[in-house]
Each structure stands twice: as C-alpha cells, then as structure tokens.
C-alpha cells in the first residue's frame, strides 16, 4: 500500500478513536480502556507520520483524490514536505500529551470524554495540514477550535469556563473573517481547490478583492496564532486548560490553525504581496517584544509560559516574513523546537501543580530537592526557550537573527536579540523562585510525579538537546529542506498538484 492510500487514515484514525473511546468509556466506565486506546492511537499516528516523511523524502509528494474525483472538482488530500513536517510535529506532541494524561487526568472525572475531545482536536489539526481544499481547511479549523474550547473548560472551574468563553469569542471572530475571505475568493475564482485558486489568481493578477481577502486572512489567522495585537485570549486559555492541553495548545494548535494555515494560503495560493510582507514583518517584531515584556511580569508559571509563546510566534513569523531560504529554514526549525520545549515547559508546570497544588511562584521554592526529574527537565526547557547553547532553541534563534541581518532587517535582528536576553532574565527569575531556595514548610510532604508523567518530561528534555543536530547536513536535507522547498515553491504549488500525483 502506497502512502497515497494511507492519507485518509491520518484523519480517520483519530476520528474513529474519538468515537470508540467515548463509546467504550461510557459503557464500561474504565479509565484504563481510554488510556490504552488513546496511547495506541497516538503512537500509531506518530509512526505513520514518520513513514510519511520517509516517503515524501523519496517521492516528493503524494495526492489522494476523495471518491476518485480529481481537482478542481473533487476534494483533495496533499502530502508534501511542509504537510509531512507538520504531521510529525503534531503527532509527536500529541503522543507525549497522551502519555502524560494517564496519571495527570486521573484527578478529573470522565476521562473518556477528555480523550474523545483530544482526538477530535488532533483530527482537526491533521485535516488542516493535509487538505488541498480551502473550505475543508475551514471545516477542520472549526473542528479543532471547538474541541479546544471544550478542553480549556474541561475542569469546569470558574477560571477555565471564563477563559474558554473568551477563547471561543475571539476564535469565532477569527473563523468568521476566514470564512468571509473564502467566500469572496470563491466568488472571484469559482473554485475552492487551493491549487486551482492559485492558478486563477496567477493568471489574472492580484486584484483588489484578493488584497482585501489577504487582510481578512491576516486577521483570522493572526487571532488563531495569537499574534500581537490579537493575542488577548491566549494568556487566559493556556493556563486554565489541563497541562496536556496547554502543551498541545501552545506547542502545536496555534501553529497549525494560525502559522501553517497562513503560510500555506499566502505562499502557495495568494502570493506574498509587498503590503502583506511589510505588515507581517512589523507584527513579528511587535509580537516578539510585547510577548517577552508581558512575560517578565508574571507570577503564575503557566501565564509566563503562555506569554513566552506569544514572543516565540513572533520569531517564527519573522522567518516566514523574510521569505529567504535561510529565513524559512529558521522559521521551520524554530517551529519544531518551540513545539518541543514549550510542550515540555507546560508539562513541567502540570507536574509542579500536580505535586504542590499551586502555580504561583511566591508559594513555591526549593522543590529541586523533592522533584529532581521535574527540576532538570524544567531547567532544560527554560534554557532552550531562552536560546542558551547548546539547546535547540539557541540554534533556531541564531539562524533567524542571521537571516534578518542577511535581509538587511537590522532593527528586527536587534529586537530578536534583545528579546532572547529578556527571556533569559525571566526564566532565571522563575528557576530561582520555583526550583531553588528554601522549601516552604507547606511543601515538605511533596514528592516526584508518577513514572507516566516523568517519561514525556525526560523524552522532551532529551529532544531539546538532540534536535540541535537537525540543522547539520544530512539531517537538514531530509527534514527541514523538504518543508522549506514546499514553501518556496510558491504559486508553482498549483502546477505540482494539478499535474498529477502518486
């Protein structure tokens, strides 16, 4: 069986898992069944994603025509270097989150409902990365978004319910702007197939309606990605969610629903108009700086990590906005690295809250002597996020700064460097107040988290070191260059898709 025939499995498996876990969990009321099915499904998805990457490296791309109907009339699934790269990122973090959930989510009731919503979220994200149809992208965005709203509110506490409501309002405003833009594009081109729209726009030139749609897409995807000034929902939603969901939201959701969709639409469909490029460059620097300044003033460790994500989205956006090969490589590398170390940090915060019952730094201190694994992984995640060598975050930040210098965007290079220094200051303060110092008497009885929670912490900490080597020749060609080429192919995307498939 070729990779083309497996493409529907990426969407069908999490949807089927969601249904089965909910059904069996409701019938038998056994959390072990939900844990087993959830981890098997996420593990198989990760293996399929690795297989897909290998196939793409050998064959270039794979297409699946739903129902046998070819574009522009039928629905199309597309696997290229960029979608294969994103599949790996999604399934890797999802697998870590499901392992962590075995013990962490035991404190919550109705664990089967949690896994059912989680796999709907995973199915939505995978659908976004694989679809070759603009309206289906919107449908999958809504599947992922609605399930994430419910997951943020899963603890049904006041904080979570309020955060989920804010998230939903902002998220649906973004969805409406995306849907309006899709409707306008359909009226202008008469098609919803991405490659066909790209070909039509390339033939007719960038008309005012296309530029207007570009602005609408910028707003919609900007909200989904929490780009400043559309970031207000993130600082409430990410801390309020259960730790595995916080890891997914910050590690992959804002990137898939926001950054990936934005890059696919602008590079491969609409084209990078100079007006759009200038707006994106400004927003990247603004997000880096505002995110880290807000991060400096936080006492809740999860809110600190949430604002850190705003800043790092700015780094990723910088690389894609530059549009140079080095900038794209840096953006993709940082997207992967951020997914790893930010998921690690949110899982660490979940471990700390699980053991101590608090996320407030003033109520913590000295937990290193009681929780060594959590402490070591927390230090590694913090240093990677700060851009300290030899951890993976250093190399991707360095590449992005060099790319900005190469493109003569010296102010943005300076902002990126300053942001890294300020982030390091914030994380050193957090480490000192949480892990070091004297242990409060109220925490004398705490102990390290269960093995099921330590495994993903150790695995992600190790990956934060090992992924530094992905920039070396050999690794880079197999992994990052495939995704970079899929981005830089630009509107030639339409020729590769409409020309046939494997």
Automatic annotation (TrEMBL):
<feature type="domain" description="NADH:quinone oxidoreductase/Mrp antiporter transmembrane">
    <location>
        <begin position="132"/>
        <end position="420"/>
    </location>
</feature>
<dbReference type="InterPro" id="IPR001750">
    <property type="entry name" value="ND/Mrp_TM"/>
</dbReference>
<feature type="transmembrane region" description="Helical">
    <location>
        <begin position="304"/>
        <end position="322"/>
    </location>
</feature>
<feature type="transmembrane region" description="Helical">
    <location>
        <begin position="74"/>
        <end position="102"/>
    </location>
</feature>
<protein>
    <submittedName>
        <fullName>Monovalent cation/H+ antiporter subunit D family protein</fullName>
    </submittedName>
</protein>
<keyword id="KW-0812">Transmembrane</keyword>
<dbReference type="InterPro" id="IPR001516">
    <property type="entry name" value="Proton_antipo_N"/>
</dbReference>
<dbReference type="InterPro" id="IPR050586">
    <property type="entry name" value="CPA3_Na-H_Antiporter_D"/>
</dbReference>
<feature type="transmembrane region" description="Helical">
    <location>
        <begin position="36"/>
        <end position="54"/>
    </location>
</feature>
<dbReference type="GO" id="GO:0005886">
    <property type="term" value="C:plasma membrane"/>
</dbReference>
<keyword id="KW-0472">Membrane</keyword>
<feature type="transmembrane region" description="Helical">
    <location>
        <begin position="209"/>
        <end position="233"/>
    </location>
</feature>
<keyword id="KW-1003">Cell membrane</keyword>
<keyword id="KW-1133">Transmembrane helix</keyword>
<feature type="transmembrane region" description="Helical">
    <location>
        <begin position="455"/>
        <end position="475"/>
    </location>
</feature>
<comment type="similarity">
    <text>Belongs to the CPA3 antiporters (TC 2.A.63) subunit D family.</text>
</comment>
<feature type="transmembrane region" description="Helical">
    <location>
        <begin position="114"/>
        <end position="131"/>
    </location>
</feature>
<feature type="transmembrane region" description="Helical">
    <location>
        <begin position="367"/>
        <end position="388"/>
    </location>
</feature>
<feature type="transmembrane region" description="Helical">
    <location>
        <begin position="6"/>
        <end position="24"/>
    </location>
</feature>
<feature type="transmembrane region" description="Helical">
    <location>
        <begin position="408"/>
        <end position="428"/>
    </location>
</feature>
<dbReference type="Pfam" id="PF00361">
    <property type="entry name" value="Proton_antipo_M"/>
</dbReference>
<feature type="domain" description="NADH-Ubiquinone oxidoreductase (complex I) chain 5 N-terminal">
    <location>
        <begin position="77"/>
        <end position="115"/>
    </location>
</feature>
<feature type="transmembrane region" description="Helical">
    <location>
        <begin position="168"/>
        <end position="189"/>
    </location>
</feature>
<feature type="transmembrane region" description="Helical">
    <location>
        <begin position="245"/>
        <end position="263"/>
    </location>
</feature>
<feature type="transmembrane region" description="Helical">
    <location>
        <begin position="275"/>
        <end position="297"/>
    </location>
</feature>
<dbReference type="Pfam" id="PF00662">
    <property type="entry name" value="Proton_antipo_N"/>
</dbReference>
């Amino acid at each position: 069986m070729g990779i083309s025939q497996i493409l529907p499995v990426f969407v069908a498996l999490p949807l089927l898992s969601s249904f089965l876990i909910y059904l069996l969990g409701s019938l038998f009321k056994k959390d072990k069944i939900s844990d087993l099915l959830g981890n098997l499904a996420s593990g198989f998805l990760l293996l399929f994603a690795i297989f897909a990457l290998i196939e793409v490296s050998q064959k270039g791309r794979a297409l699946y025509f739903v129902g046998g109907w070819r574009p522009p009339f039928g629905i199309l699934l597309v696997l290229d270097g960029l979608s294969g790269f994103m599949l790996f990122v999604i399934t890797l973090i999802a697998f870590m989150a499901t392992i962590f959930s075995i013990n962490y989510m035991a404190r919550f009731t109705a664990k089967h409902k949690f896994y059912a919503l989680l796999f709907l979220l995973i199915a939505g994200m995978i659908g976004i990365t694989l679809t070759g149809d603009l309206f289906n992208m919107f449908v999958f965005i809504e599947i992922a978004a609605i399930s994430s709203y419910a997951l943020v509110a899963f603890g049904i506490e006041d904080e979570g319910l309020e955060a989920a409501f804010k998230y939903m309002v902002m998220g649906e405003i973004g969805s409406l702007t995306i849907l309006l833009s899709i409707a306008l594009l359909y009226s202008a081109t008469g098609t919803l197939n991405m490659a066909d729209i790209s070909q039509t726009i390339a033939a007719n030139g960038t008309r005012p309606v296309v530029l207007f749609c570009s602005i609408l897409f910028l707003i919609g995807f900007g909200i989904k990605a929490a780009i400043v000034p559309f970031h207000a929902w993130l600082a409430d939603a990410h801390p309020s969610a259960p730790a595995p969901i916080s890891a997914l939201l910050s590690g992959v959701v804002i990137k898939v629903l926001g950054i990936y969709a934005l890059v696919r639409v602008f590079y491969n469909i609409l084209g990078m108009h100079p007006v759009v490029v200038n707006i994106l460059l400004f927003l990247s620097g603004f997000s880096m700086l505002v995110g880290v300044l807000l991060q400096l003033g936080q006492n809740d460790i999860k809110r600190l990590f949430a604002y850190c994500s705003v800043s790092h989205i700015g780094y990723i956006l910088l690389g894609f906005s530059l549009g140079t090969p080095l900038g794209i490589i840096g953006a993709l590398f940082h997207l992967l690295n951020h997914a790893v170390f930010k998921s690690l940090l949110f899982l660490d915060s979940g471990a700390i809250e699980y053991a101590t019952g608090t996320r407030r730094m003033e109520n913590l201190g000295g937990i290193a002597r009681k929780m060594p694994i959590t402490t070591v992984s927390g230090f590694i995640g913090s240093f990677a996020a700060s851009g300290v060598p030899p951890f993976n975050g250093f190399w991707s930040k360095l590449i992005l700064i060099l790319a900005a210098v190469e493109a003569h965007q010296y102010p943005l290079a300076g902002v990126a460097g300053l942001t890294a220094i300020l982030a390091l200051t914030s994380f050193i303060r957090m480490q000192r107040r949480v892990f070091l110092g004297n242990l409060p008497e109220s925490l004398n009885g705490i102990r390290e988290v269960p093995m099921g929670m330590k495994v993903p912490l150790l695995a992600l900490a190790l990956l934060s070191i090992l992924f530094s080597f992905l920039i070396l020749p050999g690794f880079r060609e197999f992994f990052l260059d495939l995704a970079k080429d899929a981005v830089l192919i630009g509107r030639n995307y339409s020729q590769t898709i409409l020309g046939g498939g494997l």
